[in-house]
């Protein structure tokens, strides 16, 4: 773990004109820091996998003046959405007793929401930035698979893994997008064209439905029937396709350890990874066909629209007893489409009342889309609930 002396040294060494100069940040423990074991939330990875150099995202942030203050908790091997962890303990919500922060980037979200650092790095494979951002009342950004910032993180699924980050304020998110993603694409003189889907169009009786629809209507129109039905039809098998591809890739990554380190895995995660080794090849092929169909549908959508809005999760932060397989599937119903589409997403917070928060995910065509800055600059956005 970086020491206070190390942190002070990095801050002092930053160029005076570095865009993130003076900003400490925290790093999800899937990324490497030279001389520091990467545990990935597990009991054994740091013992069997040497770390020789800093991950690309660490060097990029150092070059921009930010200083690493520490590494953060996550669901074991990033294979979950709740914030549970058998080895290091579950990650509590920073403001709501009895509820969890969400995952898998649980520690990064919780510590930004608690005001410890202005931003923290996470990853998002199937919602691991979008869900904790929603649960903790934060802004979150999910990049795209194959980007240089995720390429050297310890993987869950190379097809779907992305890098991302959390902030408590829209202005901080705008700065990070400029520093790490680059200048936005040329913005037209008119407002971007976007539509939204209501939560109950994906899942009946969602408790975030009304609040998220009200928030989305401030900068997007409801999707027309044809657009809605076309999207939902292409997503029909998205959750099963996501699980099939991600778990089959996770099995391939973990195959050398599943037998010899069985006692050191969370039993639930070990079972998921092990069972994935028995998935028939034709099922994996069919799942990849679903990926392609979803991407084709999104390509058609973006010929007419600039962005799509839908809730980041169908419920607010969960209690431990609510962290069930059914809840996991319900969340994936909302997050898997963007994961299959390989799309970048911005999450913005939505207040639900009684301190609970939800989130909206804004899906755009490319990481440097002008849509993201336009949404963040929209004066109708509320201050994040974590800062009230």
Strand content: 5-15%
CATH class: Alpha Beta
Could you tell me the CATH topology label: Amidase signature (AS) enzymes
Total domains: 1
Describe the global form. Answer: globular
Q: Spans of 5+ residues with little confidence (pLDDT < 50)?
A: none
* H-E string: HEHHEHEHEEHEHEHHHHEHEEH
- State the CATH superfamily name: Amidase signature (AS) domain
Mean pLDDT: 94
Q: In which order are the strands of the major sheet placed?
A: 2-1-3-5-4-9-10-8-6-7
- For the record, the CATH architecture stands as Alpha-Beta Complex
Count of helical regions: 13
Helix content: 25-40%
Using the CA coordinates, give the radius of gyration.
20 Å
Number of E strands = 10
Ends apart, CA distance between termini: 31 Å
Structural class, from secondary structure content? alpha/beta
